[in-house]
Amino acid sequence: MKKLITMAAAAALLAGFGASAQAQTATYTLDPTHTFVTWEALHFGTSTNRGRFDKKEGKIEIDRAAKTGKIDITIDMASISTGVAPFDNHLKSKDFFDVATHPTARFQATGLSFDGTKVTGVKGTLTMFGKTQPVELKGSRFNCYENPFFKREVCGGDFETTIQRSQWGSTYGLPGIPDNIRLLIQVEAVKQ
């Protein structure tokens, strides 16, 4: 009888360990002070215009053991900032982002690539102007650390891609203002 109880206890312990090993998904909320979506576009082949979106929010789920995850980020398009107010206003107009009609953009992903426990790529969709197109981001410097201020784990990295704005219907100024827009995303998210 004692042997049967010991075996039952060992089985229960192993079952509990297996359940905890499988339940590795962690949820993170974007840290707005360390997350920026920056863009670059050539200006008539002469110089590079740059700007960023200052307001964004979202959640990231990652299971580093299973190498899976989900991302859902919303960007406030009216928060575009180039440092030049008249240029910002033009970008917010119908010529470019038409923020009165399309106030947000949304990135969603369920395909993450890993090298060990580090995220090296993200496949998802970007919705702007009511159109959804596939987007693939290349990641670098992915890292997780214990943040001394939040007293929680923070994960993040740098991600980038180049999109063709015409795929979403943004054609103003083509070809003088190129179709290709480089997106650079600096992201850090706090474990919940």
TrEMBL record:
Signal peptide interval: 1-23
UniProt cross-references to InterPro entries, sorted A to Z: Lipid/polyisoprenoid-bd_YceI (IPR007372), TTHA0802/YceI-like_sf (IPR036761)
Cited Pfam families: YceI
UniProt keyword terms in alphabetical order: Signal
SMART domains named among the record's database cross-references: YceI
Gene3D superfamilies cross-referenced by the UniProt entry: Lipid/polyisoprenoid-binding, YceI-like (2.40.128.110)
Annotated Lipid/polyisoprenoid-binding YceI-like domain residues: 27-190
Protein name from the UniProt record: Polyisoprenoid-binding protein
Organism of this sequence: Rubrivivax rivuli
